[in-house]
Amino acid sequence: MEEIERALGYTFKDKNLLRLALTHKSATHSNKNCYERFEFLGDAALELAVSKYLFVHFPELSEGELTNIRAAVVCSQTLSKVAEKLNLKNHIIFGKREKMEKFHENKSILADVLEAIFGAIFIESGFDIVEKIIVNLLKPYIQKAVAGKLFYDYKTKLQEIVQREGNKKIVYKDCEIIEKKYFKSELFIEGKKVSEGYGTSKKEAQQDAAYKFLLEMGEQEE
After folding, report:
1. What residues bind Mg(2+), as annotated (predicted)?
2. Is 196 within any annotated ligand binding site?
């Protein structure tokens, strides 16, 4: 957990708060002893912090533009990128079955845990502190979003690249896992499996699979 604190630039006085923020309900079988309540609070703090930053620093933007930019910044794709940079996936506490199913690679879970950590910081130190941390972590993505460069339709991007190289056949094979709570999608190109992705929907899992292959190809920034 010290690795997370160093990356955040914040040290928890009560380490149990951070532990709870990292605990998936599969490890406790209880909604009270996992990250879900912290996630609820962190989501609210995140929305307010990003809204305030956009309002103050981009007075030329309309209400509609502010709303669209905020949506791109606080979505699970962006938050999961931040979570990956913080290496949260190696610290999330899961039940044994969920570990085997690679739940730590699920972008939605990574995003949820990041929000839970924001919530835990808010509880311990208040909004001003968590606001600074949120802005520090998300500022590069805010700048990309304002410039129109925050792009998440990885399936379309992959399709365009493959078509340029000879219109090879792309197939996504989807399956539900762990009592239908999550999906896994395997990406095949010309019959060869090239990646797999995870998500709370088939669409999200397919996008994750396409994103991972684009990364491997060097066609996508992390």
Report:
1. 39, 112, 115
2. no
Buried b (16+ CB within 10 A) or exposed e, 144-168: bbbeeebeeebbebbeeebeeeeee
> Is residue 8 assigned to a domain?
yes
Same domain, 134 and 171: no
Q: How far is residue 24 CA from its own chain's centroid? A: 15
153 carries a ligand binding annotation? no
Same domain, 142 and 159: no
Q: What is the pLDDT of residue 136?
A: 98
39 is in an annotated binding site: yes
Cite the active site residues: 43, 115
Q: Model pTM greater than 0.85?
A: no
Q: What residues have CB less than 8 Å from 60, skipping those under 6 apart?
A: none
What the block records as the tokens of 19 is 């532990």
Label residue 146 by pLDDT band (50, 70, 90).
very high
* CA angle (191, 193, 196) in 5-degree steps: 140
Domain encompassing residue 55:
2-146
What token pair was written down for 191?
A: 């019959």
Between CA 92 and CA 102 the distance in angstroms is 11
